[in-house]
Amino acid sequence: STGQVLVPYTGDTLTVGGELNKIGSNIALGRNMAGVHWRSDATESLKLGEALAISVLKDQKASYNEQFAGFSLTKFDGTTITV
Q: Are 61 and 83 in contact (CB under 8 A)?
């Protein structure tokens, strides 16, 4: 209550994917509130960014010298893919 100590986090489990989704959503929503974009622009830009990120990860996978089985991630639409 005084701001002098840290309080332990007791919410849901934090994941890298969840945090990245949050930051992407916050940027898109912020641009909408600022009047820079339409809502549909933000929605489609999240999908475009996701597709671009997956494409970059697939390209990077091909350049690894080590054996790499890939990793799974959940897309915005709820489907799981392995890169």
A: yes
Residue 41 pLDDT: 84
pLDDT digits (tens, 9 = 90+) for 7-19: 888 988 988 888 8
Q: How many angstroms separate the CA atoms of 12 and 29, rounded?
A: 23
pTM above 0.70, yes or no: no
Which residues lie below 8 Å from residue 72, measured CB to CB, with a gap of 6+? Answer: 80, 81, 82, 83
How far apart (Å, rounded) are the C-alpha atoms in residues 83 and 74? 11
**C-alpha angle 34/40/79, rounded to 5°?**
120
